[in-house]
Design a protein that fits this description.
By secondary structure, the protein is an alpha/beta fold. It is built from 10 helices and 9 strands.
Length: 248
Amino acid sequence: MKIRFSVIIPAYNEEKLLPRLLDSIEIARQNCASADLEVIVADNSSTDTTAEVAEKYGCRVVKVERRCIAAVRNGGTQIARGEIFCFIDADSAVHPETFRQIDAAMSNKRYIVGATGVFLERFSPGLFCFYYLIKPLTWLLEMDTGVVFCRREDFAAVGGYDENLLLSEDVSFLAALKKRGRKNARKFIRLTGVEALGSTRKFDDYGGWHYFSLMTTSFKYLMRYGFRIFRSQEEMPEITKYWYQPKR
């Protein structure tokens, strides 16, 4: 049977939140007549029962040992059979109409890549300021997060996610696809009304205002080392620790 969607989920110690995402994917699948899909969990050497939870839900599981989010996303695609790749983080959840809208968007040859965007699962003064600081940038730059989707052949053409990057691999990926799309007038599409759930657990762990100090530190490194800092754990240990040594 031809598979329309491969939903690829990078996961590290996600036994608690993965069921929420998988339940939401099943609801969205039922709401889309053409949503023949497979769910692939790319297990980044979890030390909990992430893989067992995924298998219980009928997911295909691939183990990726390298601690690099780009490598984990790419690892999931290695066993993917779908026409359209959909990437979503394990601590998220998808809107019930997600696959219906993605199906319609990818049936239109005008679009090469798209995203659903996110809404935050809770708000606080710090989260409110963070969200409405970032939101205009996503619109201005025509980039977003949530469920990110593209066709298999376009993913292959740009080489997938850049595994040289420890951070900002998602931005680089969208930029590469948009560049490819400009060759034949295909563009990015941001879906409306189907935002994915945006987890706030980093803010639960580090405080509502912590992201502003993190951005300041990141900018300091950027000015000192240039964009090569996104490739080096040694030059910015506190930044990579934030992303690669989570409190779970």
